[in-house]
From TrEMBL:
This is FAD-dependent oxidoreductase 2 FAD-binding domain-containing protein. The keyword Oxidoreductase applies. InterPro entries: FAD-dep_OxRdtase_2_FAD-bd (IPR003953), FAD-oxidoreductase_2 (IPR050315), FAD/NAD-bd_sf (IPR036188), Succ_DH/fumarate_Rdtase_cat_sf (IPR027477). GO terms for biological process: steroid metabolic process.
Length: 577
């Protein structure tokens, strides 16, 4: 990707040209178009939605207008205190101030002027729930279930969710759906909810939909954003690759050279080009340059996110920021090699690690982390320890009771054969801990001692080694119906015993272009490059490579996307005669 001087003649023209159709790009497009600008959004894939479509869909918004109704006490100052405790001296307060000021405004605007609808979780602790400024709920907001049929023919152009988020090959389920499905045999209301889910899915398939049209999680958010952009009149071009930026002698970015349907097109951007291409998790060279143990790493983010926007920004005179603790948003990932040789990857986010009766061990059979810590911190511990003790892959271990009740990774809870997973080498099973250790090439005596010590702590309700279940966040992810004193602890005693190996992975990269508080890409002297903006994972993480709570990727993406659209429209109105 190179820079070119603007041509004498343009083929197409728009006020704002946005690269990428994730949460940041679609939000910026919707707001700018709502406010009267002609917006062209370019997506290089056949499908829209970006990383948002395969995410959990959570958006972190402190101090929004719905807090009082939940009975949650929050304030801008409280959120700032919490972020100060987590980010420390890495914080860029110009960005954080802009985020805290604008995020509630973004939610209010999107609720009023788009199809986006977010509902706060009354219970949903920040990830460091014992720190000053944390709240036990309210800040994490989930997208409301969306009927994909509202997209019309564009439903087939919405990126589908991850296979691991689907049941029966195509039925989406959200957090509360999963709870109902697991309790369907215990509760009449849960049974009715579950039956309605399955019935809706059957009807969808009978009417020739490739998958269920009841969308949840990030697919619901992406669907709502796509509907919003369509309603606002955004021109949506898929299957369009960006070749170059056009930049004037004074440094102003004035347009792009793109390829669509085999034709090269020069597109003029009267107001701005917005980079929102999703970071670089699919770029081997950038990952090798910026993350630990890249050859052992497995990203859950779209493979097509290869740093296009970041490379364009760098070519235009921008630079990468240098404030991050970590350069990715980490998650442990297990991998199943399928019969056709393809890899099915499963992120271990919230469904298994915190539940009672599971431990994670390193390559010498010892625990190395609080298993109920956030997915980001779990992998950070893998990185830290692997420098001294083999910890990649790490191994999750449980017993028969656990796997029947909670499942583990790709293995669903409930009765059923595990033959496919055992045969593929994804799941390990043995009649004793010692035999399981041998199957995993771990020291049997060490693993037996580890399990024995954990079991003693589990019976007492206190994990003396790592504090599993000590924090409000841990307990939130544990089993509230567990009979023991600690919802995250239970002894591992009932044979057969099971294990799954996990590797470091990510749900996106956090290293990105340095911007000012208005999301304008800046040069080496922190001067804004005229006409060039970045948001989403093309913009460096507002959280400086930390992970304070659920929704700290989509929250900033939508907030700064909103700010870009708002500010560009305001500037256009001010400049109008």
């Amino acid at each position: 990707m190179t820079l070119k001087a603007p041509p004498e003649r343009w083929d197409e023209e728009a006020d704002v040209v946005i690269l990428g159709s994730g949460a940041g790009g679609l939000t910026a497009a919707t707001v700018a178009a709502n406010e009267g600008l002609h917006v062209l959004l370019l997506e290089k894939l056949p499908v829209f939605g970006g990383g948002a479509a395969i995410s959990g869909g959570v958006v972190w918004v402190p101090n929004h207008g719905g807090m009082d109704a939940l009975g949650v006490e929050d304030s801008r100052e409280k959120a700032a205190l919490y972020l100060r405790r987590i980010l420390g001296n890495r914080a860029r307060w110009d960005l954080i101030d802009a985020y805290l000021d604008t995020a509630p405004e973004m939610v209010e605007y999107m609720h009023a002027r788009s199809a986006v609808k977010l509902v706060p979780r009354s219970v949903g602790p920040d990830y460091y729930s014992e720190e000053e400024g944390a709240t036990s709920g309210g800040r994490m907001m989930d997208p409301v279930i969306f009927d994909g049929r509202e997209l019309g023919p564009a439903f087939d152009q919405l990126r589908p969710p991850l296979p691991t988020f689907l049941l029966f090959g195509g039925m989406m389920v959200g957090k509360y759906d999963i709870e109902a499905l697991l309790k369907a045999h215990k509760s009449w209301s849960a049974f009715r909810h579950s039956a309605a889910l399955v019935g809706r899915y059957v009807r969808d398939r009978l009417t020739f939909h490739r998958r269920g049209t009841r969308l949840a999680l990030g697919n619901a958010l992406a669907g709502r954003l796509l509907r919003s952009a369509m309603d606002a009149g955004v021109d949506l071009w898929n299957d369009t690759s960006v070749l170059d930026l056009f930049q004037s002698a004074d440094g102003t970015v004035s347009g792009l050279h793109v390829e669509r349907d085999g034709r090269r097109i020069r597109v003029k951007a009267n107001r701005a080009v917005v980079l929102a291409t999703g970071g670089f998790p699919g770029s081997g060279d950038m990952m090798r340059a910026h993350i630990p143990f890249p050859d052992l790493h497995h990203s859950m983010a779209p493979a097509a996110n290869v740093g296009d926007g970041i490379r364009l920004g760098l070519a235009a005179g921008g630079r990468l920021d240098d404030i991050n603790r970590d350069n990715g948003f980490w998650t442990p990932v297990s991998i199943l090699q399928q019969a056709d040789g393809t890899l099915l990857k499963c992120p271990h986010l919230i469904m298994d690690r915190a539940k009672p009766g599971l431990i994670a061990v390193n390559g010498v059979g010892r625990r190395f982390v609080n298993e109920a810590s956030s997915y980001h911190d779990f992998v950070a511990a893998m990185h830290r320890d692997h420098a001294y003790v083999p910890t990649i892959p790490a191994t999750l271990i449980c017993d028969h009771h656990f796997i029947r009740k909670y499942g583990m990774g790709l293995v669903r809870p409930g009765p059923g054969s595990h033959r496919k997973f055992l045969k593929a080498g994804y799941l390990f099973r043995a009649d004793s801990i010692g035999e399981l250790a041998e199957a995993l090439s771990l020291p049997p005596e060490t693993l037996e001692q580890t399990v024995e010590q954990f079991n003693a702590d589990a019976r007492s309700g206190v994990d003396r080694a790592f504090g599993k279940g000590d924090s409000g966040y841990n307990r939130y992810l544990g089993d509230g119906d567990h009979a023991g004193a600690n919802p995250c602890l239970a002894p591992i005693v009932r044979a057969p015993f099971y294990a799954v190996r996990v590797y470091p992975g990510d749900i996106g990269t956090s290293l990105g272009l340095r911007t000012d508080a208005g999301a304008r890409v800046v040069d080496d002297d922190d001067r804004p490059i005229p006409g060039l903006y970045a948001c989403g994972n093309d913009m460096n993480s507002v959280m400086a490579g930390t992970y304070p709570s659920g929704g700290i990727t989509l929250g900033p993406a939508m907030t700064f996307g909103y700010a870009i659209g708002r500010d560009l429209a305001a500037a256009a109105q001010q400049a109008a005669p």
